[in-house]
Backbone:
């Protein structure tokens, strides 16, 4: 399953600060429908993400009924992306274990 969408980068200032893009409501609902097939635990779902020509493996994280796409510093910094920037993402939902397996 591959989805594409645009979203703004948000900054989560928790104990382990990080940057994310929130998956829209309708697409989060579609992902939720396959979560049991795709998740490796805690609702996390392995994915391949692409912004422009840059692609990486990560996991969607569930949050308040939606999913968050983590945006790595190694992707953000070279592209000059920061909180509030809108990006277009392509996300391929995996049906295997966590990234790196």
Residues:
């Amino acid at each position: 399953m591959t989805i594409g969408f645009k979203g703004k980068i948000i900054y989560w200032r928790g104990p382990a600060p990080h940057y994310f893009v929130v998956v829209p409501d309708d697409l989060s609902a579609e992902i939720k429908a396959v979560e049991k097939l795709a998740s490796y635990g805690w609702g996390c779902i392995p994915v391949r993400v692409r912004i422009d020509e840059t692609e990486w493996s990560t996991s969607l994280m569930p949050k308040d009924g939606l999913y968050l796409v983590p945006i790595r510093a190694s992707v953000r910094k070279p592209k000059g992306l920061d909180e509030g920037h809108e990006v277009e993402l392509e996300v391929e939902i995996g049906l295997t274990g966590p990234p790196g397996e």
About this structure: The longest strand covers residues 2-12. Residues 11 and 17 are 7 Å apart (CA to CA). The helical segments are 25-38, 73-79. The longest helix spans residues 25-38.
